[in-house]
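Morning!

As promised:
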Amino acid sequence: MGFLFDGLDAEQYDRSYSDGDLVRRILGYFRPQARKMGVAAAMIASAALLDAGIPIFIARSIDTLRADTTFSRIALTALALAALGATSWVFNLVRQTLAAQAVGDVVLKMREDACDSVLRRDMSFYDQYASGKIVSRVTSDTAAFSQVMNLSMELLSRLLLVFALVGYLATVSLKLTGILLALAPLIVGTALAFRAIARRTITASRRMNAEVSSHVQETVSGIGVAKTFRQEPAIYAEFINVNRQSQRVNQRTRYVFSSIFPILNIIAGMGTAALVYVGGLDVRGGVITAGTWFLFIQGLQSIWFPLTSIASFWSQFQIGLAAGERVFGLIDAEPRVVQSDSVQLPALRGEIQFAGVDFHYKEEEQVLKDFSLHIRAGETLALVGHTGSGKSSIAKLVARFYEFQGGQIRIDGEDIRRLDLESYRSRLGMVTQSPFLFDGSVRENIRYGRPDATDAEVLAAARHVGGDEWVAALPRGLDTQVGERGAGLSMGQRQLVALARVLLQDPAIIILDEATASVDPLTEVLIQEGLDTVLAGRTAIVIAHRLSTVRHANRIIVLRKGAIIEQGGHDSLLAAGGHYAELYNTYFRHQSLEYIEQARKAA
Amino acid sequence: MAQRSEFTAPNAYTYDQRSAPRWVFSHIRRYWYFALGFYFFFLIAWSCYAGAQVLIGRAVDEIISPSGPSGLMIITLVILSVMVGDGLSGLLGSLSAESVAARFEADARQELYESLLSKSKGFHDRQRAGDIMARATDDTSQLSHMIAPGGTLVSETVMGIVIPLTYIAFIRLELLLVPLCFVAAYIVTARAYMGRLNPVIRDQRDQFGVMNAGLEETISGIEVVKASAREGFERAKFRRNARLFRDFFVRQGYIEARYLPLLIYGVALGLSFLHAMLLYRQGSIQIGQVIAVVGLVNVLRFPTFISIFAFSLLQSGTASANRILKIVRAETDLDENSGGHAAQMRGEIVFEGVSFGYEEAGGGRQEAGSDPSLLPPASRVLEDISFRIAAGQTVAIVGQTGSGKSALTQLVNRTYDVSAGRVLVDGVDVREWSMDSLRSQIGKIEQDIFLFSRSIADNIAFGAPDAGRERVIAAAQAAQAHDFISAFPDGYDTVVGERGMTLSGGQRQRIALARAFLSDPRILILDDSTSAIDSATEDQIQQAIRKAQEGRTVLLITHRISQIRWADLILVLEGGRITAAGSHEELLDSSPHYRRIFARYDDKGTGDRGQGTANSGQGTGSAIPNDKGTANSGQGADSAIPNDKGTANSGQGTGSAIPTIAEVPA
């Protein structure tokens, strides 16, 4: 029903594909379905012809109907009419079945291609787009595209019906067809005008609804505060105000939307009256028969509704094309990280060498310039520096998440660009600030990087990072469900699961971005001790936020604007009174025992 | 039924909340004149529309055998006026229906909102904000769709069938035979169709959700996926989901293609025509009436084909009505107790054998609360808790997430009521207190601090709207917030929150502290679980909290070692029980677990990291600071003196030492 007002949201998207390119791409996906689509098209045309035939057939039968028409003739007429309807139904059945298969397969193929392409991308892609946007390209945009395919077929069949009927009518009476066609621009014009008004009111409605939502959102989130301070009447008064406004705006939109069909009905009524009178005179004059006269009146009723859908089709079609384009844009883009070879390192030792590396995320912001660093196998290296000093970039380059622009990174002496990424990364462990867990059990999460690990190995890994107590504290042990993104576990528990996951992978290189989000002191002790275990005997790059980690590192690298400005041990760096001492005062001082003991005095 | 309530809206209209249909009806009844208008105008509209078909039949007779020179003109004008009448009354009827729909949406939202305000704080703590949001916006708009076009189309279906059939009956009663059979067959086949289609659509929608959520998860965790080289696994997962979705999609097309009512309609049209022609041959009816019958059967097309859509709108509207009613009707479990104890509070808090579980306390929890699977099965959050806090003391509550820290504080301001035992404030059971008096003297700062989208000044003065600017500034200064607020271009008039400036956690916390200073509660509950990343902010928060402790009782949920270290009493919670309680010095002696925390902080003794990182708990845990001798010392770095006694205690426990349950002082 809302057909006429669909697609009011159509926006202008940046089109980077020409219409020709886009249509070629779409046809490419439909090529394997050519047979099905061909048959479906033939069915659409045939069904439209049959449907147009029904009123014509009725009209002709009325003309030949006499008081002395034989029963068998009448029965034959009725039978033929029913057969016309039934045949058209069968054609539609075949068409819809085939179209559903074809469109389903095309969308499936597009989704698979889009998903493959997404997974091939390097991290720069994921930094650029929010996950929701990517997902909606793969799932919703493809769905929007398929909807337009269905819509187009539907519209095509209706318009074919209109053309077939009008074509026939024109052969019978040009004058009456002229009256009929004179109504067409009136109907389409009115529909378009209403769409223009509707677009305005619906924008206002949408803005108002957003306001109501945000008001409710805010007060519902703040209701605790309001209750603590007993301020309910104040927020209630505000709500009443917003709610009233929203009622007014929504009512206006509803009025606009519900007025269109009655008004189109009036137009159609005027057309009908004109046909009744002019056609009636023609019947009397013997120019046309009574059946033909009736056919025109019926014809008007069957063409005006399809005509209104023309008004909304174009913008819906544009939405579909734009959706298709976004999907193709996703599929076609090339990842920036490309491996030139697939060298398998027999046993990764974990020696890492940066030699004159240049790196930036964006052209205008150089992150690393001619950066060199040698990390010995088995060394624990702490990176410290202000935000933006390049700490994380170094870690991410080791993980080969990004392409760098100059110099070389060598792992065990081999160019990182020539490594087989899958085998390299399987020996690489990474724990981020807010560790990501997949919905499932703790056990499944620990096993994620090594699906073939036995239950005993999983348990051993879990015990190794945090002792027995944290596993015992989980409501169902390792079978505890972690919930969406691990929300069912505390931050500390999530970190322990992530550590166990990495430990089970037995990585030669560990990259650790220490959490700044605080956990309770008891859990923190567990995590710290777990970390010590995990880091032992492996090359570790730690982006350090905790004083204790910094102190435990074999070497501290002090970074500023992508350059190493100091390095050494904690005590000597602190004594030197340079940049590290400054960082210590900014980030680490309050973690020291001295600070804790002084806390009361400081106030 | 006597609903216990925390808020009553002035002059609220009361609706019948006994069941969803009654409730919807009582909302419509409020605007009975619009509803009546809709039926009045639509009866006219449908009578006109179907009547036009009869008139067209008349016109044929008039054309073939003219009654007079202007007969055709007259009937044309009648047809025109009837069709214009159809349009106009349709328009008026639609406007009436839309007026009800728009008002229903707003009224239902208001009713929901009023009921939300009347619910207890405990009720709101159990709700997810997103869930309530969905009900206040999506469900209410679903309700309006239920009225228009849902309810109107259902009414139109009935009118659009009954009125043409009546006309047919007037032409010739026996002509009803085929249309009646059609309507019966239509009802049967359409129901069967819905029965087949609905589950597939539901499966398809669910599968779309699964596919979406699966991919969303993969992409959110892409670092883990890539770092673990598991792209292949994730790809296969998505393909499986997408293929399943495709199968449901094809299945839906397959069912839709077999929409029987359309076939039956085609046959019915043929049969009606046959019937009319036979009657014409017998001479029972005229040619114009044959045409009228065909026209009237054509009219049936619209109502029968729109009804499926209309009924599905009614269905989803009823579901929405039920969801809203569930919230509206949920009993709020605490009441204002406005006649209760009201007095100036001193701030002494006593817990006597307190046990608490959410299930027993919350009436509406099951249906509306958060995912129950996340709670331990027994749902006993606190077990036999006893302690005493003297007025003016500061208590640090330490424990893992889920150990019951928040629940413990929620019992003090009656966010929840205890399941067993008693909570006493100034020697009076909190249930005896007037809620207004109790809550107005207990301040609470949550971990996730909520600020309204208003100016900073308004946020600080939220609990005391008539406080002047000087008092606001004074409060901000005490909370160490004045400096950063003054640094904003608009100062205290800076708008914060969702639609304004984004503040850091530390800044929000200090604004909340300022808010608390202004309302000057006797007891302050402070959930201070977020830690500052830099030392300067830490300094300021320390100072602000220190200031807040002056002259009031403070319950502190904190991860800050420095706060724990200096609290008057430390409660260590594990699994809802107090496993250790006492001052810092006492706990260092009695709790090995507590000792381990501090062990981490003293590396002075072990110093250089020559021995690597492998020796986990052993090396680092060996030196325990003892501040017994240094408690009053101010000489900085020297204050941490390793204690040999500690070494002996924790040496054997290399990471797996299970804390012994310490005696809780009765």
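Residues 422-602 of chain A form a domain with the Rossmann fold fold (CATH 3.40.50.300).

Hope this helps with the figure draft.
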